[in-house]
């Protein structure tokens, strides 16, 4: 696939207000949902490089998203997917409870959020989820194959009442009142220039335009990071390769891009997963410039602490 020219790449995918108003009404009144059947997936992890098996199971209403780290046949620790348990880890989203770590959860969390799954129990036999091809597409396919079942209780999305913003130098992220969840993402990469994506996040747009995008990084930096992890014995990028990420060499992606502006789409993907650590779907307009996991989580923390900025619909 030809490399991107050194000019801005911009994508905008707004739905008409009339169409989206009906969807917004259904979102407010939508019932909670879980999986119709469990599913299991296995693969190697991005940072540890070790094999992991994940089993995602239906759960009752008001259960939420909970990771169950299975340590032995008789001992397991439950780690709720909530912002209070978030732990800073390099190049991933991670949770820790009772000393037990679960990391690289963002692609599964994004898929559950976008496909409107509220309640599941996620059993894992390692501390890191599989990376697969670096995208959320395998998780989306598994969720769709398992099926979605609505439950009796009503979803209670977070509805923004006023803006909340976090800034770190040139990086900033803002969420403000709006219908549904609308995200505008912007990044600028050397040799690629500015890349933008903007649109409403619905199951359809997520599956088609966001989920296939892969984790990305500069090839030389990724290989140096993998070598550093190997030499120091740290779990860092031991599973990175052309099969698990979109690796950039100057103005091209090895093997080509899957989607126009794939890197910014993946930043949007990660953001959708990180926002779900609020424990609720969110209605609002998000604008993110050069965001990453640390800034995403800073926004989530600022939002949850500013209880006057939102309400549960």
Automatic annotation (TrEMBL):
Keywords: Hydrolase, Lipid A biosynthesis, Lipid biosynthesis, Lipid metabolism, Metal-binding, Zinc. GO terms for biological process: lipid A biosynthetic process. GO terms for molecular function: metal ion binding; UDP-3-O-acyl-N-acetylglucosamine deacetylase activity. It is an enzyme of class 3 (hydrolase). The active site is at residue 293. Gene3D superfamilies: lpxc deacetylase, domain 1 (3.30.230.20), lpxc deacetylase, domain 2 (3.30.1700.10). Transmembrane segments: none annotated. It comes from the Bacteria. Zn(2+) binds at residues 107, 266, 270. Its cofactor is Zn(2+). Pathway: Glycolipid biosynthesis; lipid IV(A) biosynthesis; lipid IV(A) from (3R)-3-hydroxytetradecanoyl-[acyl-carrier-protein] and UDP-N-acetyl-alpha-D-glucosamine: step 2/6. InterPro entries: Ribosomal_Su5_D2-typ_SF, UDP-acyl_GlcNac_deAcase, UDP-acyl_GlcNac_deAcase_C, UDP-acyl_N-AcGlcN_deAcase_N. Its EC number is 3.5.1.108. It catalyses: a UDP-3-O-[(3R)-3-hydroxyacyl]-N-acetyl-alpha-D-glucosamine + H2O = a UDP-3-O-[(3R)-3-hydroxyacyl]-alpha-D-glucosamine + acetate. One of its GO terms (cellular component) is membrane. The keyword Hydrolase applies. Belongs to the LpxC family. PANTHER family: UDP-3-O-ACYL-N-ACETYLGLUCOSAMINE DEACETYLASE 1, MITOCHONDRIAL-RELATED. Catalyzes the hydrolysis of UDP-3-O-myristoyl-N-acetylglucosamine to form UDP-3-O-myristoylglucosamine and acetate, the committed step in lipid A biosynthesis. This is UDP-3-O-acyl-N-acetylglucosamine deacetylase. It comes from Methylobacterium phyllostachyos. The gene is lpxC.
């Amino acid at each position: 696939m030809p490399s991107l020219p050194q000019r801005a790449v911009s994508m905008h995918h707004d739905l008409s207000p009339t169409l989206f108003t009906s969807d917004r009404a259904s979102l407010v009144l939508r019932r909670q949902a879980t999986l119709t059947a469990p599913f299991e997936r296995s693969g190697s992890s991005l940072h540890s490089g070790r094999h992991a098996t994940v089993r995602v199971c239906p759960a009752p209403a008001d259960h939420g998203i909970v990771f169950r780290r299975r340590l032995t046949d008789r001992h397991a620790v439950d780690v709720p997917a909530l912002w209070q348990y978030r732990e800073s880890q390099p190049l991933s989203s991670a949770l820790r409870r009772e000393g037990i770590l679960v990391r690289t959860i963002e692609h599964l969390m994004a898929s559950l959020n976008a496909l409107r799954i509220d309640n599941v129990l996620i059993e894992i036999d390692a501390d890191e989820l599989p990376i697969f091809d670096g995208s959320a597409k395998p998780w989306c396919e598994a969720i769709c194959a398992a099926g979605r079942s609505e439950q009796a209780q009503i979803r209670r999305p977070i509805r923004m009442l006023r803006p909340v913003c976090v800034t770190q130098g040139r990086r900033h992220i803002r969420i403000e009142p709006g219908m549904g969840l609308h995200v505008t993402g912007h990044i600028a990469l050397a040799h690629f220039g500015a890349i933008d994506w903007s649109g409403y996040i619905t199951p359809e747009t997520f599956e088609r335009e966001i989920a296939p995008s892969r984790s990305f990084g500069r090839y030389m930096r990724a290989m140096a990071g993998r070598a550093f992890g190997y030499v120091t014995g740290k779990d860092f990028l031991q599973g990175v390769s052309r099969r698990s990420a979109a690796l950039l060499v100057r103005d091209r992606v090895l093997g080509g891009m899957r989607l126009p502006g794939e890197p910014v789409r993946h930043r949007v993907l990660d953001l959708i997963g990180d926002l779900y650590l609020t424990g609720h779907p969110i209605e609002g307009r998000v604008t993110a410039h050069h965001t990453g996991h640390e800034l995403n989580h800073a926004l989530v923390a600022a939002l949850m602490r500013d209880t006057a900025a939102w309400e549960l619909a």
